[in-house]
Amino acid sequence: MRTDRLVLRFVADEDIAPLTAYRNDPQVAALQDWDLPYSEEKARALVAKHEGLTDLVAGRGHQIAIVRDGQLVGDAYVGIDEHGGVADIGFSLIPAAQGQGIAHEATTALIDHVIERHGVHRITAELSTQNLASARLLERLGLTFESLTRQSFWWRGVWDDNLYYSMTADERRAWRDRPTGPPADVRLVPITDDNRWAYSRLRVHRSQERFVASVQDSYADAFFHGDRHGLPLIPELRGIEADGEPVGFVMYSEATPYLWRFLIDRRHQGRGTGRRALSQWIDGMRTNGHTEIETSWVEGKGSPAPFYRALGFEPTGEFDEGETLALLRLGPTPR
């Protein structure tokens, strides 16, 4: 199988040495499920299991070599259950190949292959709670968090917590066919009794939930708003609409003003919608005579800090309940 940059094939004899090497690399092996050290004999046995195979087979697991420019840069796992309906996936890459979209490209092709060619109706993946990079990749592939089981996975002599992600074939097709380009029209609309449930159903990725409160939680917080800098924190709620579809949510207080909550639904991230919506809102605050806007964020890998910084927010050096406080100073309206 070929993609734009890759060749995907069953592991073969020429892969034994590089496979053994990178499976013993601490950066690669850190959160993978194979035992260490990983011997050359194990690699030979793994390759031998694939001799004579020309396609995936129900009732067994398969190790797929990921080859770029003639070099083995990693491998993917595809296991199909005995009935041919459920496929489990996994992946690993050498450090030099990480961060370039290679795992996404390879796994996308394999998922679509097992769905469209083999009739698989469900895709699953398991991983450690510490494996944030893989969780984010699964989310970009369209899988969603399904469960967390505590101390349920025996891993190198200890019981580890186990995350479970999944999607159906129909969910994969819907994810693949979702709009990904910039919308023609982005607008802020009031949250009303007629649309509040549509906006409450918006969701971010599971890996983003530690940084972003849900719309439903924001609805609740709007009733118990308290104050900020001695002024009542009176909430204003707006939906973000892209080409007529609910895609995001903003909650703010104009008294300070304070950007309180902001999110874009997982299906619509990466389209530039959030930046356009917040730019409209910022222009509105400027038009209303405000000279600065305050917000806050949680730090950490995957934090929205780079997004807010790109809009001009700068940390003040202060913290509020563990969140970084930041300020955007508003100049005159651009001509």
From TrEMBL:
The lineage of its organism: Bacteria, Bacillati, Actinomycetota, Actinomycetes, Micrococcales. It comes from the Bacteria. PROSITE patterns: GNAT. This is Putative acetyltransferase (Modular protein). Residues 6-170, 186-331 form the N-acetyltransferase domain. CDD domains: NAT_SF (cd04301). It comes from Nostocoides australiense Ben110. GO terms for molecular function: protein N-terminal-serine acetyltransferase activity; protein-N-terminal-alanine acetyltransferase activity. InterPro entries: Acyl_CoA_acyltransferase, GNAT_dom, Ribosomal_N-acetyltransferase, Sper_AcTfrase_N. The keyword Phosphoprotein does not apply. GO terms for cellular component: cytoplasm. Keywords: Transferase.
